[in-house]
Amino acid sequence: MINHIAFAQLGKANHGWLRANHHFSFAHYYNPQRMGFGTLRVINDDWVQAGAGFPSHPHQNMEIISFVRSGAITHQDSMGNTGITPAGEVQVMSAGTGIMHSEYNRSTQPLTLYQIWIEPKQQGVTPRWDSKKFATTSSKDSFPLLVSGYKQDAEQALFIHQDARIYGGKVTAGSKITLPIIHQAYVLASSGSFTIFDELGQGINLHQGDGAEVTAQSRLKIEATAEAEIIVIDAP
User: Fold this and answer.
1) Sequence-distant contacts of 13-16: CB under 8 A, at least 24 apart
2) Is the pTM of this model over 0.90?
3) How many domains does the chain have?
4) Are strands 145-148 and 158-159 parallel, antiparallel or unpaired?
5) Interval 28-37: pLDDT, tens
6) What is the DSSP pairing of strand 219-224 with strand 11-14?
C-alpha cells in the first residue's frame, strides 16, 4: 500500500535564513496525523542561507542522518569531531548518551539537505559521527546503499544503531529499479519525477519534494519518468 504525501501537504517554516519543509511534526509544526513512520521520527527538507546554520545544541538517543543535496555543511561536536560534508556525501551521528553539535553553511551558496532522524534500537550508546562519499553520477539500474544497521553492509554503507537501510542517488530517465523492503519504506523525491508501484502494479507519480509511505510490500518497483534523485528509507 502506498500513501502519497505531496510537497504542498508538508509542514512549512520560514525563518529567513532557514526554509524548512517537515514531513512529520517538528518544532512549531504539529500535526497529530504526522508524528512519524515507525522508527522514522523526522524528515526535514531544509534550505539554509549562505553563512547561516544551527548553533551548538544537544541531542540524545537518536540516529541523525544528513543527506546533502547541494552546497556543503560544516559539522562540529562535543566529541571533537569536525568535518565538511558536500553534496554527494552523507553524514551520520549517533547521539547516544548525549552530544552537542553545530551545523553551518560556511560557503557562499545556499545549502539544501534532508535531515533524517531514526530512533535507535538500543539506548545509551557511545556518541559517534561519520561521513562517506558516494557516486554522484546517474545510474540506470541501481541505487547506492548509503546507510545501514546490518553488519554485512559495513564496508559499503555508513553505520547506524537500527535495523534499517537507506538507499539513494541519481537515476537517468527511463530507469527501472526494484528494491527489497524488509520493514516498511519511506520514499523521497529529491529531484525530478518518477513512479512507484504497489504489489498490484498500480503506480503513484512523485515529483520533486514529495514523499510516500510504502507498507505491506516486500519490494518496491521504481520507474523514472525523468532524471531524478531518489531516497528510500527502509526502517522498522
Assistant:
1) 16/49
2) yes
3) 1
4) parallel
5) 999 999 999 9
6) unpaired
Q: Over the stretch 121-177, which tens digit does the pLDDT of each residue have?
A: 999 999 999 999 997 777 777 889 999 999 999 999 999 999 999 999 999 999 999
Neighbours of 68 (CB within 10 A): 20
Which domain does 32 fall in, by range? 2-235
CATH code of the domain in which 169 resides: 2.60.120.10
Contacts 24+ apart (CB under 8 A), 207-211: 207/7, 208/7, 209/7, 209/10, 209/21, 209/45, 210/4, 210/5, 210/6, 210/7, 211/4, 211/5, 211/10, 211/23, 211/43, 211/186, 211/187
- 65-119 tens-digit pLDDT: 999 999 999 999 999 999 999 998 999 999 999 999 999 999 999 999 999 999 9
